[in-house]
Amino acid sequence: MRTIPPELVKRYEAEGWWTGDTIGDLLARGLRDAPDAVFRVHSAVRPWSGTFRDVERVARRLAAGLRERGVGPGDVVSFQLPNWMEAAAVFWASAFLGATVVPIVHFYGRKEVGYILRSIRPRVFVGAERFGRLEFQPDLCADVPVVGVVGRDFDDLLAADPWPGVEAVDPALPALIAFTSGTTRDPKGVVHSHHTLGYETRQLAGLYPPDRGRQLTSAPVGHFIGMVNAFLIPVLDGTPVNLSDVWDPAQALALMRSDGLTVGGGAAYYMTSLLDHPDFKPEHLAHMKYAGLGGSSVPAAVCDRLARLGITVFRSYGSTEHPSITGSRHTAPERKRLRTDGDVLPGVEIRLGEDGEIFSRGPDLCIGYTDPELTERAFDEDGWYRTGDVGVVDEDGYLTITDRKSDIIIRGGENISALEVEEALLGMPGVAEAAVVAAPDERLGEHAAAVLRLRPGRKPPSLGEMRDHLERMGLARQKWPEELHAVEDFPRTASGKIQKFLLRRDIAMRA
After folding, report:
1. Residue 378: which H helix or E strand, with range?
2. What is the CA radius of gyration of the chain?
3. Is the dihedral of CA 448, 359, 184, 105 positive or negative?
4. Is the N or the C terminus of the chain less surrounded, counting Cβ atoms within 10 Å?
5. How far is CA 380 from CA 2, 216, 358, in A?
6. 86: closest CA among 35, 148, 139?
7. Cα–Cα distance between 148 and 69 in angstroms, integer?
């Protein structure tokens, strides 16, 4: 793990950002204070309905069963489950035991899961027998001492009597390892301590509007932010948990009407897929009061579209490594909420490198990677994290992300901002999402290629129509994409972010 400068540790503790609480302590208090809060899974495969008390009992019986099998503080417990009740039980049980939990996104395949299990060597693995394309593969878990499969033998892990307390562990030790698959070929294992995860949970909860309503969580709980939103923040707040194990805009719109649930943001894709769905009606807007957007670049065109509908948009910026770097409150001036990614959050510091790259540090910054080489490259001795993102800070201290360093296209020695071209493309009629990536070019080295997802029923524009639009927008000719592709949907990370490295690979293979 990285070395955290002693002066930062002292500051974080003195300010109360880092406390003596473990994640198990936070959960135990929250569950004690709101035992009757509703916990519901909206699923065609494994629906479930109960209360926090009911889920806690399963979690504590699981904790007792794992303890009987020798699992305790510091051991690694991994699970690959959809947004089901059992995922909460595994996470909560691990926290009560002081174990390090490793959630795995349920749609990761054999290659990713095998890599993760080899990296962490868990003592426990809990999976699903079958869900969509997910199927339990016993050979991957051959070296794991304790294995349970939901839908087959998970209940065999439960002891008759629940585990009564919370194991005492050092809150500076690892609480969670979140594997994130973004721009790299193999997932990166990001390690968070009880300190960093606890602070992130409290900080993120503080950004949410108090009248946000009963949220529907469809983001996979195997992903860092989905898990925090589903299994930690509601417990701290004593608010209901409503999970969906697939992102289905039709289901979300139906639940708004039948159960009064709300969808409050995430990646911009979640909001636009609702607005573009044929079942969307003006009355649904009553359940879409707020849109907290983040997880990927937030196009200005999307912000403007939501704002015109009366939705209060506020943006934030972070990553699995440093989850909450900047953010706008829902009460901030509209220009700041729509056009920036917010100002730095309490305890967080940022600075910009000579090329505009953002460096950050703060109480919610992870403590390193499972790969020591990644840790050494990403963090310096003063505690700064190299984000790989490029931005600018305005006179009021609000940050705007202008590029990802890996998204800069170098055409014949000239830099092209993919984000700038994407913003222009989103102004075309019928375009729901746009991604611009580098494509190989024998003469220039590389050129821009545009990949579009269209709204339902719309036909792809021609290359000429796209160029005419960009000329009207005033975009310099050398920035125009030189090839155009249309897709039904993009390859995405668990948080909805477009995986551009896969687009670049597919386009290069066609060349």
Report:
1. helix 372-378
2. 23
3. negative
4. C
5. 9, 39, 13
6. 148
7. 12
Question: How many degrees, rounded to 5, is the angle at CA 302 between CA 300 and CA 305?
Answer: 110
CATH fold of 6-204, please? Rossmann fold (3.40.50)
Mean pLDDT is lowest, of 46-60, 76-90, 483-497, for 483-497
> 298-329, pLDDT tens digit by residue?
778 889 999 999 999 999 999 899 999 999 99
Q: Which residues contact 45 (CB under 8 A, 6 or more apart)?
A: 82, 131, 245
Q: Give the CATH class of 412-510.
A: alpha beta
**264-293 as b/e: b if 16+ CB within 10 A:** bbbbbbbbbbbbbbeebeeebeebbbbbbb
Q: Is 496 exposed, middle or buried (0-12, 13-18, 19+ CB in 10 A)?
A: buried
CB atoms inside a 10 Å sphere around CB 199: 25
What tokens does 435 get?
């991604």
Query: Do 88 and 150 meet the contact criterion of CB atoms below 8 Å apart?
Result: no
- In the chain, list all ranges with CATH 3.40.50.980: 6-204
Of 458, 451, 505, the closest CA to residue 185 belongs to: 505
**What's the average model confidence in pLDDT over 167-173?**
97
Show the tokens assigned to 65. Answer: 């069963």
Q: Start-end ranges of CATH 3.30.300.30 in the chain?
A: 412-510
CATH 3.40.50.12780 in the chain is located at 263-363+373-405
Topology given in CATH for the domain delimited by 263-363+373-405: Rossmann fold (3.40.50)
Task: Report the C-alpha gap between 365 and 4 in whole angstroms.
Answer: 10
Q: Which residues pair with 447 in a beta bridge?
A: 439
DSSP string, 4-60: PPHHHHHHHHHTTSS-S--HHHHHHHHHHH-TT-EEEEE-SSS-EEEEHHHHHHHHH
Q: Is 100 helix (H, G, I), strand (E, B) or coil?
A: strand
